[in-house]
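User: Second chain of the day. Same drill as before.
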Amino acid sequence: YAAIVTRRRGMTGLMRIVLGSIATKLVEKLTFVPLILVGKRTPNNKILLAFDGSENAASALEFVGSLFGGFDYEVSLFHVIRSNGEGQPEYQHIFSSKEYTRAARKEMSETLKAAQTKLIDMGLTTDKVSTQIAEKAISRAGAIADRAKQEDFGTIVMGRRGHSHVSDFFIGRVTNKVIHMARDRTVWVVR
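Assistant: Same format as last time:
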C-alpha cells in the first residue's frame, strides 16, 4: 500500500482524546509507510508541508509531489527557526543567536528553493508552491499548527522525525506535538 488512512479516534465517547488506541498504536508501529490521520475538518486543496531539510522531510516532499503533481493543489513549504532572543525573558534560553538565525535562514532558504523546484518538476504549478520561514517562535509545533489554522490549511504533512537520529524515538517531538495541537486537521506522517 502507498499509505494507511485512519481516523484519529474511533467510536469512543471521550471527546478530549486526540488519538484513540488504534491510531496511537499505528503512529508508534507503522514506520515503513505514510500514515494519514484524518481530523474533524474536511481537507481542502491546501497542504502545509513542514520542512526541515531532514531525510524524512525529503520523503514527505516526494510523497506530496507524487500524489499531487498535475492537480490543482496549493503546497506551502514551511520552516520554523527559534531565533534571536527577543522573546519574553523566561523563554530567551531557547532562542538562537542573531548570527545563527541569519546563517540558518540563508541555508534553509536555499534548501526550500530546491524543494520548491522539485515539487514544480513533479507537476505542481509554479504559482501554487510557496515557501516561508518563520522566526521568533517559542514552539515549532505551535507555529506549524497556528499557521495551518490561520491560513486554512486542511492538511499538514510532516516527516516522522526531523534531524534527530535517536533510534529509541518512534516519532519526533515536533511531529508528535503537531498531531496533538492540530487535532482538527488531517496530519500526514511520512518516513
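Residues 98-121 form the longest helix (24 residues).

User: Great, on to the next one.
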